[in-house]
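Follow-up to my post from last week.
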Amino acid sequence: MPELPEVEVVRRGLERWVAHRTVADVEVLHPRAVRRHLAGADDFAHRLKGHRVGVPSRRGKYLWLPLADTSQAVLAHLGMSGQLLVQPHAAPDEKHLRVRVRFADALGTELRFVDQRTFGGLSLHDTGPDGLPDVIAHIARDPLDPLFDDEAFHRALRRRRTTIKRALLDQSLISGVGNIYADEALWRARIHYERPTATLTRPRTAELLGHVRDVMNAALAVGGTSFDSLYVNVNGESGYFDRSLDAYGREGLPCRRCATPMRRRPWMNRSSYFCPRCQRAPRALS
DNA sequence: CCTAGAACCTGCGAGC
DNA sequence: TGCTCGCAGGTTCTAG
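User reply:
Got it. Predicted complex:
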């Protein structure tokens, strides 16, 4: 479940169902799922064994499970199609089950990493003084992080020679925003996705950030966005925010503000959805 | 240094 | 029915 709200839904599920349990055994069924663990699958499995899981954390779309009494954590990224599921032992293996974690208790459930496209994965890393895994030190704070620096973000936008949607998806500037919530926030802010970042005034940046936060909080409140069973919480349940989307996936449907048919444009090997009337294209640069 | 584009995967639905 | 194509919510590497 890719973007921040969906990952946060998963994090909360792990906090409830997996935190404070001790790992008994780890089974890696597909080596690609642990490719970011450079020492290999056997090493990954061996190092987790016997450790107690702490309270899961998240930054942007990354989440991690600290191992108690160590300075290491299991880092997870769901990529495009990854799921972390808490399943009864008896549940049949999913078709794309990649990693299974069993626990040393009698709760009867195990943690499963399931991932159709294998863009996601698990890996073990050292953590810094702040608890952050070292390999994601370059990932910016996300907009729901109280320490996110709005002013620094605005200065970065002014400095860049790129367009606003690219910047929103740049995880080193602001993390957690993906294709859906970028389109939603831009629609709410009435900003065209190809607007140069250098043209944003301080109030416009503040307004846009406000919309990013609003749409993510609204999605979080209803369990995130899912169009199908690929994006689910740890119990396999879908969120309901898909029915509240104003831009994403609404090609040809009337804009909810002005009734103009929404458009879809190919963009960076994916799509951008926008209202051609509310979100005017920027003047061509000479 | 910065930015844009391709590459990495599997599966699904549309169209022929 | 079966094939091909386009498309999918992300990150990372490379070329310019």
